[in-house]
Design brief:
This protein has 567 residues and is an alpha/beta fold. The protein contains 23 helices and 19 strands. The chain starts with a strand and ends with a strand.
Length: 567
């Protein structure tokens, strides 16, 4: 699923009319219908909407977002729900499709006494109108609020009276949920970071149309604004969206969200004649005295996502610990330093040849430690590898501590190089502060990918998976309970384990495989949080829930016009 800017969305709407002959008022009616369908799914399970939603207050602006709100209000009224519509404009200010939708709701109000219209003709810079006091009372008495004031085309922060409206709505009791139409009012759709985000509605549920927008996914404050996030397909084809993207001459990243229907390659049954050699052999290189668990967890995670074989190459002093963790993990004991870390001896040609023999992918870094000799050995090792590799944790620190960047090198088309920094590691690699990385996550990820030639996985809320050239996946799974030691080691193992199976995933690119690993990692974390809660969640809970997460993804893989990206 593509991610769009507001400008690209407008072009997609225009092309939908031009090429598919679906006109604006029909798109508006479909958008309003999609919002009502989400309301039915969210609130209608116990009965009809008029029984569950006692009274709804719909806040509308003068643009097309307000037009979508008019459709929502009309459909709810026709379903028997009492609806108060607050229009922050003079009806004479409405144009085009919004005017058509308003006339339809005005006509509906004549036959549905439960549908009432309140008009607040006010500009964004004007003082509070007297009618706002009555509208506030309607908001306070509602069982549900619908925000349709500003849409995705908003430019600049909201000020004046409308900022006061947003502040008031955000102070509503927790018992009054709010559903945002297309986007929470005040949230911009830009892919660029905002220096100082303006006020915006904090929604419980957001229903956007056709595709998610950058501003709904990337900024750190977006998740609190968007809430539970639904995307509704209202008729614009994938080909039309692609045409809108291709016609955009600017250098905005080409973003996508990977969803369950895209994961057929993970969910497909395996060939009956398969054997363990069909699914690759992962080498996990790392571990040190006191950090044996990291390499063990990464190794188990590689097995849990289907790698046929996994070998952990670790200092001799911890091989018994790793062997006792899971009997399925094979061991390659290596020479160690006096402090129990990997020594430069791993670079001996015969040692390296034995460790790499028969392997399909190498995961480097879990539990490695920041010992100077170990770090130097990793820096010398990486350019020699002709296999796909994943570099994580102290493997990344080995380069940043020397003021260097790892590079993909000339591995050939069958190989992939993956970096998996968290914000702190990214900051050290790029010579930035963590705050600077977090303020510009999209730029940091794409910049590092271009400089190194690697696929970059910038971990954190809405993990970004960026490839050289600007292609980006945004992950929507995961939860704060996964902020726990070892979760990154599990992800490293999952990425390596899936990359090892690339031949079995015929035709699937390394970027998509890496993005799938990130999605599955977050989905497993969500299953663990659902079972145990976020507070007690530990990294091994994620590994144990991989199977359940795959079953849930399989259940969600059927195509649908309504897709919930995250709760």
């Amino acid at each position: 699923m593509f991610i769009l800017t507001a400008e690209q969305m407008r072009e997609a709407d225009r092309l939908t009319t031009e090429r598919q002959e679906i006109f604006g008022i029909e798109l508006m009616n479909r958008a309003g219908g999609a919002v009502v369908e989400v309301l039915r799914r969210k609130f209608g399970a116990a009965g009809n909407l008029d029984e569950v939603l006692r009274e709804v207050c719909v806040l509308c602006g003068k643009g097309n977002n307000g037009g979508d709100g008019f459709v929502v209000a009309r459909l709810l009224a026709e379903a028997g729900v009492r609806v108060n519509v607050v229009l922050f404009a003079d009806p004479e200010q409405l144009h085009g499709d919004a005017q058509i939708a308003f006339q339809a709701i005005r006509a509906t109000s004549l036959s549905h006494p439960g549908l009432r219209l309140a008009l607040l003709p006010v500009g964004s810079g004007q003082a509070e109108p007297p009618q706002w006091r009555v509208a506030k009372e309607q908001c306070a008495s509602a069982s549900l609020l619908v925000d349709a004031v500003f849409g995705t085309g908003l430019k600049g922060p909201v000020t004046g009276f409308f900022a006061e409206v947003i502040a008031h709505v955000n102070q509503r009791p927790a018992s009054i949920p709010l559903v945002a139409v297309d986007t929470p009012s005040g949230l911009t759709s830009s892919a660029e970071p905002e220096a100082e985000p303006g006020p915006c509605i904090r929604a419980d549920v957001t229903v956007t149309f056709t595709a998610p927008k950058w501003g709904q996914l990337i900024p750190l404050h977006a998740a609190d604004a968007v809430g539970e996030f639904w995307v509704a397909e209202i008729g614009t084809s994938r080909e039309t969206i692609a045409a809108a993207l291709n016609g955009d001459a600017r250098s905005a990243p080409r973003g996508q969200v990977l969803t369950a229907p895209d994961l057929d390659f993970l969910l497909a049954p395996r060939a009956r004649e398969s054997h363990k050699g069909s699914f690759g052999h992962v080498l996990v290189l790392g571990g040190s005295l006191g950090k044996a668990g990291a390499v063990a967890m990464a190794s188990e995670a590689a097995l849990r996502v289907g790698a046929g074989l996994v070998t952990a190459a670790v200092p001799r002093g911890i091989q018994a610990i790793v062997a006792g963790y899971r009997p399925e993990i094979m061991l390659e004991p290596l020479a160690e330093t006096a402090s129990g870390t990997l020594s430069r001896g791993l670079l001996e040609p015969h040692v390296l040849a034995q460790a790499l023999a028969g392997k399909n992918v190498v995961a480097i870094g879990p539990g490695l430690s920041q010992d100077a000799e170990s770090a130097a050995a990793i820096r010398r090792l990486l350019p020699q590898l002709r296999l796909p590799w994943v570099l994580d944790a102290d493997g990344l620190n080995a380069f940043s501590s020397a003021g260097e960047l790892p590079h993909a090198g000339t591995q050939g088309s069958e190989a992939a190089a993956v970096l998996t920094p968290h914000p702190g590691e990214m900051a050290r690699l790029l010579g930035l502060s963590v705050a600077e990385v977090q303020a510009g996550r999209l730029h940091a990820a794409t910049h590092l990918a271009d400089r190194t030639g690697c696929i970059v996985v910038l971990k954190g809320h809405r993990t970004l998976i960026a490839a050289p050239g600007g292609q980006v996946f945004v992950n929507t799974t995961g939860n704060p309970g996964m902020a726990t030691g070892g979760a990154g080691d599990v992800l490293t193992g999952m990425i390596a384990g899936l990359l090892a199976q690339r031949r079995a995933f015929s035709g699937v690119s390394p970027l998509t495989i890496v993005a799938a690993a990130v999605l599955l990692h977050g989905a497993a974390g969500d299953e663990a949080a659902a079972a145990e809660g976020e507070l007690p969640l530990v990294a091994t809970d994620i590994t144990q829930m991989i199977g359940r997460a795959l079953r849930q993804l399989r259940a969600a893989a059927a195509p649908s016009c309504l897709l919930r990206l995250c709760a």
